[in-house]
Each structure stands twice: as structure tokens, then as C-alpha cells.
Amino acid sequence: MHSWKSVISGQVAGSEGDTALTFTPVTGSYTVDTDCTGTATITPEGQSALNFSFVVVDWGKEMLAIETDADTVVSGTLQRSKE
Q: Which of 1, 30, 59, 72 has the most CB atoms within 10 Å of its CB?
């Protein structure tokens, strides 16, 4: 089985209940396997790294992710930049 590795850079934003969170710069890396599943590590500026498992969807335009760190319940969508 082959896999691909790459880097992540951009911004992350979200919400917690009714509270919107601001955009924060992030860096990280990810690996994708031939079955379109993978893992990612994302580090928001000034914070600890977050670890995710994901699946690639929509012809590679998005990743549906769930955080795999202990004592967390975080899921989300990562989108490829239009650049």
C-alpha cells in the first residue's frame, strides 16, 4: 500500500456552542493512504498539536476529520485552498 505525505498551512476557525472562535494560523502535516483515509497533526499558533484521523471526499477537495487525542470530542471539515 502506498501513502502520500504533505504539509498543512492556513487558518482554523470554529465554534463552541453559540460562541464563534476566531481564525488562528496553523501548521502541520498529513499522510493519506490509497484508500483515501489518513492521519493529520495540526498545530494552532501558540497551542499544542492536535491529532486527527480523516477520510478524503469530494474528489480530494475536502477531508472529514475527527480528533483522536484523549478526552476530546472534535470533528470538522478541512478544505483545500482555491489557490
A: 30
Which residues 6+ apart lie within 8 Å of 66 measured at CB? Answer: 52, 53, 54, 74, 75
Range of the domain at 26: 3-13+21-79
The H-or-E segment that residue 64 falls in is strand 62-67
Q: What is the pLDDT of residues 50-72, one digit of tens each?
A: 999 999 999 888 889 999 999 98
Q: How many domains in the chain?
A: 1
Task: Please give the model's pTM, rounded to 2 decimal places.
Answer: 0.76
